[in-house]
Design brief:
mainly alpha, three-stranded parallel β-sheet
Length: 227
């Protein structure tokens, strides 16, 4: 969505989607954080005038991962940005963002679409698709049109089928034998416990309870461990 917004501002979709437009600056977390050096690089670029479009767009993905120093460094340019600059902060969670950052931004909340809305969009894009497949794809998309588009992409579908075929081939191979984890160790333990008496005298000899015969039959007794 942020890239679409940037494409509308810059007047070109192809290079924005590829992230190659000269007036587009994209910043993403390195590892699990956006650090002060990343913001310093953005600030250096921020004071360069546009090359082709009337504006320069700065997209900061994962803005909620900025550490305290990075947020403080960005604060100055959020207060007084250049007239041609548009700074967009994309965050999954507003909680980690400092109040000083949030108070200087215009909040635009996005929510996932309903399953019905996704189904209607899938039917519009693939009118020949059976209803059961439309429902399955809509549920798999989980309210996201970008995920629905990837699920409908024939190239993505062929790649997915190829990966599934490779995964299934392992189980179809005649040499494959399933073995429960720990089964061998359990058998080894049982054998160790069931061994006869050794020289140390610590073993336990098992006896079988045989069914008594004749009139003097007695109830079978449990096997006892002889010391």
């Amino acid at each position: 969505m942020a890239l679409l917004f940037a494409a509308e501002l810059l007047g070109e979709h192809t290079r924005v989607e590829r992230r190659t437009h000269p007036d587009l600056y994209v910043l993403e977390p390195v590892g699990d954080q956006i650090r002060i050096d990343d913001i310093r690089g953005l600030r250096r670029d921020l004071h360069m005038r546009p090359f082709e479009a009337a504006r320069r767009v700065y997209l900061i993905f994962g803005a909620d991962t900025m550490n305290e120093d990075a947020a403080d460094a960005l604060l100055k340019d959020l207060e007084e940005p250049p007239s041609y600059a548009v700074i967009v902060l994309v965050a999954r969670d507003l909680g980690p963002l400092p109040e000083t950052i949030r108070s200087r931004c215009q909040l635009v909340p996005f929510r996932r679409l309903s399953e019905r809305a996704v189904r209607e969009e899938i039917r519009r894009r693939a009118p020949d698709l059976p209803d059961d497949e439309v429902t399955t794809l809509a549920r798999a998309a989980a309210g996201r049109l970008d995920r629905a588009a990837r699920l409908l992409d024939p190239a993505a579908a062929s790649r997915r089928e190829a990966l599934l075929a490779v995964a299934r081939a392992v189980y179809l191979d005649g040499r494959f034998r399933f073995r429960r984890r720990g089964a061998g160790a359990a058998r080894g333990d049982r054998r160790a416990r069931g061994g006869g008496e050794g020289e140390g005298g610590g073993g336990c000899r098992r006896a079988r309870a045989e069914r008594p015969r004749g009139r003097a039959a007695r109830s079978p007794r449990a096997a006892r461990c002889r010391a």
